[in-house]
TrEMBL record:
It comes from Lentinula aciculospora. Its EC number is 3.1.1.-. InterPro entries: AB_hydrolase_fold, Tannase/feruloyl_esterase. It catalyses: feruloyl-polysaccharide + H2O = ferulate + polysaccharide. This is Carboxylic ester hydrolase. Coiled coil: none annotated. GO terms for biological process: xylan catabolic process.
Length: 539
């Protein structure tokens, strides 16, 4: 999605006077030789890139190209590309985008899945907002986990070292370039990017002043097993327990909405808080009188499988490994990946290249294996250390959000994580609110999209693809909300989400809704227009 960008009254242009006097073009000409002094770094190039340039990435791994093959640059910037070795058998490839209109802010972006791919759309977004921005390949190229095999250093980069190295080096380059250090530093990422944000909060509390970590893949080991477990429950396409995509989307999803959509008082396809949905798939069991037409009903074993899908996962000792999949999350984009009769590909790669070996038959993985996966926890990829006191005491702020209709990472995992922090630190939500806030985004799928008011400024599409004072308003944009929290001490209370007609900005706004911070719940007053955000309060 590429749209015209109107840069209007960005948060703060305090440095604008400074940037006028500063000779940006010459700085870009010098930076490659300056940065060559950084330990372990090899500079590939430093290019002056004018706003409007359509960048393509011919050197990038082809598997990354499926998500990004080009990116239109939104603001003048100096693009520095380099690699940095992290050991004698590992290293990262990274980019630093230095905007002409620098605000004095530094920002790092993150990755997704098991990749290995620079998220160009994210650095384009943050560079346009005046952040000196960095992105790295997380220690390996491509979306596969194969390069972890027999190379713990590549794995260490993925778990914690790439994100930290990228920040240390990126801050150095920023200072060399502008000849002055940054004032404030930020992070923006989702999914694996959300986990990277929390890894920084836990292990490198000085790296960022403000972290926006969406749909975080924390509790990572168990997430891999939980994703694999759907194969154990549903089997393959010839198993009696198997459920077709048509049944998930046309039968079960509709039945879930029938049972649960109006718990919140509005029949809008959005289950505001899926925790309140005690879904009973047995309602769909085929009646002996009407026969078994599988587009109308489920067999007994299928209904039992559906109940399992929506049940939490426990280990052999009865401890909770991962919370349940939330009903209502069924999504055409992901049914094939998780419920399609194969083991989820990231789980497969994790078992093949990290935990076991490539000859391990992932289809036979069982709870004994999953318990082993949990215990192995290489380099503490679990990212579940609930003691955030180092980050808290230095004044760091973290904002997390999670789509309540996320099928890839159950949003209940972020509740588990929040509650774990509360218990570890011995703090009630009113105290956690001082440094961490968690917004539950109803009707949002994985990091974006969905039937809910999912545009919250988390990405460029999440800012409607148009940077205006409206889309950058801290009341409705998680990134500018974080900047305001860090720099002005005004913490976000609620986030006003937007839903466009057919997710198309030009077609206008369908509705907006304010999303509440956990543990508050967005609650309809049962009298106003439910499309009006003022008809909802946080309770
Ligand atoms: C950018 O370049 C790519 C590849 O050449 C092309 O497919 C795409 O349409 C271009 N986008 C714009 C907005 O020019
Ligand atoms: C990784 O990709 C980058 C481009 O994104 C390329 O410069 C680098 O050589 C690649 N590294 C390997 C080991 O293939
Ligand atoms: C530089 O590389 C060496 C070995 O390759 C490694 O031990 C060291 O930690 C690296 N330094 C930095 C700053 O990454
Ligand atoms: C960095 O790039 C240089 C030049 O292509 C290459 O020789 C070196 O092996 C690369 N280092 C890493 C860690 O990728
Ligand atoms: C830089 O910011 C100024 C003031 O906000 C604006 O007028 C100008 O268009 C911006 N320039 C670029 C290249 O974005
Ligand atoms: C940092 O903030 C100070 C005080 O507001 C300001 O004077 C200075 O120019 C800023 N420096 C940078 C690099 O933004
Ligand atoms: C499904 O699994 C069964 C049992 O493992 C196997 O015999 C069968 O070939 C598989 N069918 C498909 C379509 O993969
Ligand atoms: C099953 O039900 C669907 C929808 O009600 C109907 O279109 C289809 O013809 C039925 N199939 C059989 C074999 O009865
Ligand atoms: C898992 O499979 C292994 C190997 O077949 C077996 O030894 C173990 O008992 C199984 N664990 C469970 C919980 O079924
Ligand atoms: C949290 O970590 C800090 C140091 O990092 C330590 O002083 C404190 O005791 C820890 N708190 C708990 C509850 O473990
Ligand atoms: C929205 O998309 C649907 C399905 O693609 C289409 O049928 C409908 O006409 C679109 N509505 C508008 C207003 O474009
Ligand atoms: C509710 O508000 C929406 C959006 O403003 C409007 O389109 C709709 O007509 C309103 N519904 C009623 C019943 O007033």
């Amino acid at each position: 999605m590429v749209r015209p960008i109107y840069l209007a009254s960005l948060l703060s242009t305090t440095l604008y006077a400074l940037t006028i006097a500063f000779d940006f073009d010459s700085a870009c000409g010098r930076i490659a030789s300056q940065a060559a002094s950084i330990a372990n770094a090899t500079i590939f190039f430093a290019d002056l890139v004018p706003a409007g340039t359509n960048l393509t990435f011919p050197d990038q791994d082809p598997s990354c190209a499926s998500t990004t093959s080009f990116q239109v640059v939104l603001a003048d910037m100096c693009r520095v590309s380099l690699n940095v070795s992290t050991s004698d058998r590992s290293g990262i490839t990274m980019e630093t985008w230095l905007p002409r209109n620098w605000t004095g802010r530094f920002l790092s972006t993150g990755n997704g899945g098991l990749d290995g791919c620079i998220q160009y759309v994210d650095i384009a977004y943050t560079t346009a907002l005046g952040f000196a921005s960095v992105a790295a390949n997380n220690g390996h190229n491509g979306t596969s986990g194969e390069l972890f095999f027999n190379n713990p250093d590549v794995l260490a980069d993925f778990v914690y070292r790439s994100i930290h190295t990228n920040v240390v080096v990126g801050k150095d380059i920023t200072q060399m370039f502008y000849d002055t250090p940054h004032n404030t530093s930020y992070y923006l990422g989702c999914s694996t990017g959300g986990r990277e944000g929390f890894k920084s909060v836990q292990n490198f509390p000085d790296d960022f002043d403000g972290v926006v970590a969406g749909s975080p893949a924390v509790n990572f080991n168990n997430l891999m097993s939980w994703s694999a477990r759907f194969y154990n429950i549903l089997g393959n396409s010839s198993s009696p327990t198997f459920i077709t995509s048509d049944q998930w989307l046309g039968l079960i999803h509709d039945n879930i909405l029938k049972q649960c959509d109006t718990i919140d008082g509005v029949a809008d396809g959005i289950i505001e808080d899926p925790n309140l949905c005690d879904y009973k798939p047995e309602e769909l069991i085929c009646s002996p009188n009407t026969g078994t037409n599988n587009s109308d009903c489920l067999t007994v074993v299928q209904a039992a499988a559906v109940r399992q899908v929506f049940s939490p996962m426990y280990d052999l000792d009865g401890n909770l490994m991962f919370p349940r999949q939330q009903p209502g999350s069924e999504n055409a984009d992901f049914i094939g990946l998780l419920y399609g009769g194969e083991v989820f590909e990231y789980s497969r790669d994790w078992f093949h290249y990290v935990v076991f070996n490539p000859s391990f038959d992932v289809k036979t993985a069982n709870l004994t294996d999953y318990t082993f996966v949990e215990k192995l926890n290489p380099f503490n990829i679990a990212t579940f250390n609930g003691n955030l006191s180092d980050f808290q005491s230095r004044g760091g702020k973290v904002l997390t959000y999670h789509g309540q209709a996320d099928m890839l990472i159950s949003p209940a995992d972020t509740e588990l994580w929040y509650n774990h922090i509360a218990e570890t630190m011995g703090l009630p939500p009113s105290d956690i609110d001082q440094f961490m806030r968690f917004f539950r985004i109803s009707g949002m799928s994985h990091c974006a999209n969905g039937v809910g008011a999912w545009e919250i400024g988390q990405t460029l599409p999440g800012a409607s693809g148009i940077l205006t004072s409206e889309t950058l308003d801290p009341e409705r944009n998680v990134l500018t909300a974080m900047v305001r929290w860090v720099e002005e001490g005004v913490a976000p209370d609620r986030i006003l989400g937007t839903k466009h007609v057919n997710d198309t900005t030009e077609l206008g706004v369908e509705f907006r809704r304010r999303h509440c911070r956990y543990p508050l719940r967005s609650t309809y007053d049962r009298k106003g227009n439910s499309s009006d955000p003022d008809s909802w309060t946080c309770q």
